[in-house]
Design brief:
The complex is a heterodimer of chains A (190) and B (215). Chain A is mostly helical and 190 residues long. Chain A folds into 2 domains: 112 residues, Rna Polymerase Sigma Factor, Chain: A, CATH 1.10.1740.10; 51 residues, Winged helix-like DNA-binding domain superfamily/Winged helix DNA-binding domain (Arc Repressor Mutant, subunit A), CATH 1.10.10.10. In chain A, 68% of the residues lie in helices and 0% in strands. Chain A contains 9 helices and no strands. In chain A, α2 packs across α4 and α7 packs across α9. Chain A is globular, with a radius of gyration of 18 Å. Chain B contains 6 helices and 12 strands. The two termini of chain B are 36 Å apart. In chain B, the strands form 3 sheets. Chain B has a 6-stranded antiparallel sheet with strand order 1-2-3-11-5-8, with helices on one face. In chain B, strands 9-4-12 form a 3-stranded antiparallel sheet, with no helix packed on it. In chain B, strands 7-6-10 form a 3-stranded antiparallel sheet, with no helix packed on it. Helix content of chain B is 29%, strand content 23%. By secondary structure, chain B is an alpha+beta fold. Classes of the chains: A mainly alpha (190), B alpha+beta (215).
């Protein structure tokens, strides 16, 4: 039924190369682009939780998983940046949990934030347009909304942590997040 | 079967951002197993994460890092074997419960049993609850947030009937009186922030949930 729609962004095709041909040159190009971004992502978390030495550690963990899991990457389902984001997020969760000396139960972030390998891509057209325009839509959000989304995603802060940091009622943080997501959806559909 | 009750936008966004507490994230994960609607919502929220990653600050990495990494990529890959679903339950539940039949249950009331799951964190208590067919659970209120995800069977309360995949969030102060449907036991995953209290002085004395201390 579905016409296979290749993503036109270079990173996704490079990642597909790494997956299907184990292409090292392509992997090195991905590394040069994404490793500094993953490090930035890692350092967005407060330094107390995530030291600089841990950041390079995280970059290495994430990129190793990118290499290992690349054969499972499906460019029809997600952009390379989204796919790598979810790996970085899961690695950061595991690193923070290890740092907090949680009991070892064998449960890892990948078990809780699992990739859905089985489900069919939603609507392919809709999907690739989402990725192409989500960045420009994000820039159109009011600063107070984009600021909070950045804190939630990049700094990994819960709504209540954001509320106490910005000295805002929790309800205000929740409604700003909801408004921002709603606006993004409206803009993406528009 | 259509899932009717879903996590709200805030919970799902925190989950996609990885900032939702681990215990609650287990509840979301269980719901996603049943709900393609929320899987698609999550894809959008994840792609927002991908965009923010690309737009974020770029910090140079240590020069030797690439070499170190390239030396490691030839090591044999330890990919966890994706275990076939044994009980047709969410992956995270199957991981937490290696054998459903070997679970040890504690009886809280004639029709309600609980089995606590060790998830390596103490902010939320994660447990399976089983209500026997036709059984009623005493009316109780909630002191903290509580998430319930129906895994098998169904139960109802004054607000409606809940079937597999349905995700319910109870806020502190909510009071309800769940009962299982007549023909089948009901199995639920519950994630509780603080011990729940039965309403009324009598139940407060006998409150079986008081044993629910995060460990």
């Amino acid at each position: 039924m579905h016409v296979k729609s290749e993503r036109n962004d270079d990173w996704s095709s490079l990642l597909s190369e790494v997956g299907s041909n184990r292409d090292r040159a392509a992997f090195i190009r991905l590394f040069k682009h994404f490793a500094p971004l993953i490090k930035g992502y890692s350092l967005s978390k407060t330094p107390r939780d995530m030291g600089v030495e841990n950041s390079d550690e995280l970059v290495q963990e994430v990129m190793l998983k990118v290499w290992q899991k690349a054969p499972y990457f499906d460019s029809r389902k997600a952009a390379a940046s989204t796919w790598i984001y979810t790996i970085a997020r899961n690695c950061r969760i595991d690193l923070l949990r290890r740092g907090a000396k949680h009991q070892n139960t064998g449960l890892e972030a990948d078990d809780v934030w699992q990739p859905d390998e089985d489900n069919e891509p939603y609507s392919l057209l809709q999907h690739s347009r989402d990725h192409d325009s989500i960045k420009s839509c994000f820039r159109q959000l009011p600063v107070e909304q984009s600021h909070i989304l950045t804190k939630v995603y990049m700094e990994g802060k819960s709504h209540s942590e954001v509320a106490s940091e910005l000295d805002l009622p929790l309800g205000t943080v929740k409604s700003r997040v909801r408004l921002a997501l709603k606006k993004l959806q409206v803009m993406l559909r528009g | 079967m259509m899932v009717k009750h879903h996590p709200n936008e805030n919970l799902l966004a925190e989950y996609a951002a990885g900032s939702l507490p681990f215990g609650l994230s287990i509840g979301i994960s269980a719901h996603l197993h049943f709900c393609s609607h929320c899987q698609h919502r999550l894809e959008q929220l994840n792609s927002l994460g991908g965009s923010l990653l690309e737009e974020g600050q770029s910090v140079p990495v240590d020069e030797g890092l690439l070499d170190k990494l390239m030396a490691r990529i030839d090591n044999p890959i330890e990919m966890p074997a994706s275990s076939a679903s044994r009980f047709n339950l969410p992956g995270v539940v199957e991981k937490l419960v290696p054998d459903l039949k070997a679970l040890r249950w504690r009886r809280l009331s004639p029709s309600l049993k609980v089995s606590r799951l060790n998830t390596g964190q103490d902010r939320y208590e994660v447990a399976l609850h089983k209500i026997s067919r036709g059984g009623k659970v005493a009316e109780h209120g909630h002191r903290g947030q509580e998430v319930t995800v129906v895994l098998k069977g169904s139960f109802s309360d004054d607000d409606g009937v809940y079937t597999p995949g349905d995700f319910l969030l109870r806020e502190p102060g909510d009071i309800h009186r769940p009962r299982a449907t007549q023909n089948q036991d009901c199995l639920c995953l519950s994630v509780v922030e603080a011990p729940v209290s039965l309403t009324g002085w009598f139940y407060r004395l006998l409150n079986p949930f008081l044993g629910f201390k995060p460990s």
